[in-house]
Amino acid sequence: MIMKIAYRVNDGPEVFENREAGLLPIMLMSNRCHLEGMSPAELVKNKEESEELGGYFVVNGIEKLIRMLIVQRRNHPMAIIRPSFTNRGAAYSQYGIQIRCVRPDQTSQTNVLHYLNDGNITFRFSWRKNEFLVPAVMILKALIETNDRAIFDGIVGAETDNSFLTDRLELMLRSYKKYDLYSKKETLAYLGDKFRVVLGAPADKSDIEVGKELLQRIVLVHLGDDNEAKFRMILFMIRKLYSLVAGECCPDNPDAAQHQEILLGGFLYGMIIKEKIEEYLQNVCAQINSDVNRSVNVNFDDEKYISRMLLKVNHNIGQKLLYFLSTGNLVSQSGLDLQQVSGYTVVAEKINFHRFISHFRMVHRGSFFAQLKTTTVRKLLPESWGFLCPVHTPDGSPCGLLNHLAHKCKISTVKSDVSQVPEALRSLGVAPASSFAAGPKHSVVQLDGKIIGWCSHENAIRVADTLRFWKVDSPKYKIPVDLEIGYVPPSRNGQYPGIFLFSGEARMLRPVKYLPLGKEDWVGPFEQVYMNIAISPDEIASNVHTHVEYSPTNILSILANMTPFSDFNQSPRNMYQCQMGKQTMGTPGTALVHRSDNKLYRLQSGQSPVVRAKLYDEYGLDSFPNGTNAVVAVISYTGYDMDDAMILNKSAHERGFGHGTVYKVEKVNLAEKRRRGDPITQRFGFGPDSWPESWREKLDSDGLPMIGAKIEEGDPIAAFFDETSGKTRVKKYKSSEVAFVEEVKLLGEDSGDTEFQNLTIKLRIPRAPVIGDKFSSRHGQKGVASQKWPQVDMPFSESGIQPDIIINPHAFPSRMTIGMFVESLAGKAGALHGIAQDSTPWMFSEDDTAADHFGQQLLKAGYNYHGNEPMYSGVTGEELRVDIYIGVVFYQRLRHMVNDKFQVRSTGPVTKLTMQPVKGRKRHGGIRVGEMERDALIGHGTAFLLQDRLLNCSDYTQSTLCKQCGSLLSAQVSVPRIGTTAVIRCRSCADRVVDAVSPEDEGRIWEDGTGKRFKGGDQTATVAIPFVLRYLDSELAAMGIRMKFNVEPK
């Protein structure tokens, strides 16, 4: 990145100076990326995915994505009732009007009008994370040369009989008299004086110029320098605020999609770049001011001095953006008008392709809302119909905050050309904005937050309808097809009426069919609320519906559409499948041979599903198979299929059903402990010293492992010679799993002129399904493999078919996953006829049922209409006395595997303080057993197991207890004297001996090691206790609490 800095000394010529601003991370497939425009064949040649999506960054070898955030809709004044507003002062009420104004460079500034209980209105804004409040009348008088009468008429209009409005307006204007400011110049000078320090204005600027700067930078910034438009807009906002207080209109819901838009990653990236450049220029000014204050010779005519100042300040902006992408933390002086400082970036995980593409459709409400205890922000509202998927959201803490876009929804990225819209409105009879016909008795017409004009409510409907007709097909006016025409009709206690037009970026849009012309119309969430859109052609009512959906499935995300017959399932099951589909061992990509992810999952036996939605082929998901078609029988056959357990056919397992591979990368860095600048003393390979010959069996002559070599625990994976010690050392493989060397990469420095010091070894670990591995159908029916049942003992049908999987019938009644029954029918019919079955939701009705559709196909193939079959016991050969429901279901193997999770420990490392096992599987730690687990073990009658786990194998210790005083802490080992052995005595119960004693008592005297002599305290006993009890006793003793134990029998 190169900055071109222009400066001028007084009235001299402009001088330009170029400065490198560091290396900027580039988004893949952007117009700065060399992959842009490449064909699939060229991408493969460049070792990339053939269908590379782009849209993410590569930071330190990790794919990072700037997540999309939901923010307030731009340039639209929103009426809000927020109880927290009352905390701003004694007179403040809960009413306010908030508008988020966005500049052309996508930076934003939020302005708020507050209603005070005495009728006054204040204007609030924040600057560099500090909030400021200014009387709204002061802002109005600073914008244009005006008077109280013009302000009064502009807000009241023809409603002079509205005493609620006029009384408060008169009070607001009267209370402003105390400032004694009347003209525009006086008001600007007053504002400039107060905000000079806040804005950091130079001393040579007058107060009036600083006041103008304030208005330009803060007040309704989306309107630029058009102070007339700003004046009109604030009048409208004041009128709307008074209407809200009077109950004439309802508050707008900030949690509804109608008042939201999406902050895109590119916009945020540009905002950060702009701020970092501004910070750089401010630092240059600060450096020059420092020189002036220190009386250093400052010569602005000397170009070398300016160059020196520009070089003196850190200008590496690329490094700051790299930090932002790698951590997701926003380091900003202004906060960029956003509500969070972290969580802006996520890792674009490639667990499977479904997981990867979901990242690009994910929208988050913001980490600020994740901490709120209220559930209001999480609720699914009707305004999000067709824009946010109602199914695809996680269960748990992010539920309702982390949503996904519906598959037909798109985000506008460029501002539309609306230059002919004002002319079209004038032709429809919209009065110009200069006539202040304000109030809810007229409809305001706004275009991107600018008042274009006014019209009557009767005419407003005609204006909106005609404008939409011209938008879809206009020979006369060029009205953009993605223009949002939000007509809010007048209503009692409804939203504030008007026609609100939006053409900006970051809006959600979706296609629907416009019935009068039969053409495509793009609608947004603001206008959709007041439109009549039929779900299907059957529902169209004449003179009611103007639009119809292209498909009912347009409300669902890509992943939610992949769930077969999801309309038959209970809704939470569809939500679970959206999560489990992203946790499946599948095919993460086609260029796996060139990737070096820390961990990569791959399913070897992936198949194309027999039952799939139309969208499955449209998105080309057959290139990334995510599961296997399995013959599934629903029967309680053995005791091993209780609850959610499932029985695997051992032969199916041996033929590769669900077989997967995990790729892991081991890293060896020889420069890890070497300081920068020190000479290289460690090199890969074998040295001249002696070393075990067994190393040669696993390693090549260069000290690197051989491709395809089998590696077991303790085997060497790399050898290097240490010149300092003169010895050859090896790095050993620590995992207990057998692995095979897939790939070896030597990595050098960016400069390319140093020896290789980094090595990555990609290991292939075969993972056949084992008992305890997790599987799932595409209906949220998850379960673990409980047993591999021999094929000879599996039940078989009359045609000799044996199931691959047996699941328990009790999995269905409470979960109501009827879609899985239908998939079983459809899969069976599809396999018999050799066709792929369409599983798109809402295809069937009560007149044309799915059961009949697929039942007829089964009858044609000679099978039972209902999908049941008589089956025979594999053990006895007898026919089972019930018809078994058997069919073909697409099953997924999830990445949650026993080999990654099992934790076994007898003895091992302990914490020094409590002597209890450490925490963590990697550290060979123990499992935490709490009170409820203890109760379960006691209730189960396993008292000896409880004692063994919680005491003998945990923190068993033998301690001495004084039977007399009951203390664990007062026992002490005596110092042995000549001819005697050391004994344990209680110091607190013993008597101090100072004088000489008789010879017969001398044998009972003991010393404590400091020369003090004691007699008695011999009533001690050795007890077995958990060490943590002794630790507890010590902690309580430090607080002056004594514990007393009784070991005597009752």
In short:
One of its GO terms (molecular function) is DNA-directed RNA polymerase activity. The chain is 25% helix and 24% strand. The protein is of the alpha+beta class and 1050 residues long.
Structure description:
- The protein is α+β, with helices and mostly antiparallel strands.
- Among the domains are: 72-253, RNA polymerase Rpb2, domain 2 (Dna-directed Rna Polymerase Ii 140kd Polypeptide, Chain: B, domain 3, Alpha-Beta Complex), CATH 3.90.1110; 413-531, Hypothetical Protein Ta0175, Chain: A, domain 2 (Alpha-Beta Complex); 565-659 and 771-893, Beta Barrel (Dna-directed Rna Polymerase Ii 140kd Polypeptide, Chain: B, Domain 6); 681-766, OB fold (Dihydrolipoamide Acetyltransferase, E2P); 908-952, DCoH-like (Alpha-Beta Complex), CATH 3.90.1800; 956-1038, RNA polymerase alpha subunit dimerisation domain (DCoH-like).
- Helices cover 25% and strands 24% of the residues.
- The chain contains 27 helices and 49 strands.
- The protein has a 6-stranded mixed barrel. It has a 5-stranded antiparallel β-sheet with strand order 6-7-8-9-10. Strands 15, 21, 22, 23 and 24 form a 5-stranded mixed β-sheet that branches.
- A hairpin with a 5-residue loop joins β7 (92-102) and β8 (108-116).
- It is globular, with a radius of gyration of 38 Å.
- The mean pLDDT is 91.
Key traits:
ribonucleoside binding; DNA-directed RNA polymerase activity; six-stranded mixed barrel; single chain; Dna-directed Rna Polymerase Ii 140kd Polypeptide, Chain: B, domain 3; RNA_pol_Rpb2_3; Hypothetical Protein Ta0175, Chain: A, domain 2; Dna-directed Rna Polymerase Ii 140kd Polypeptide, Chain: B, Domain 6; alpha+beta; zinc-finger; 49 strands; 1050 residues; 27 helices
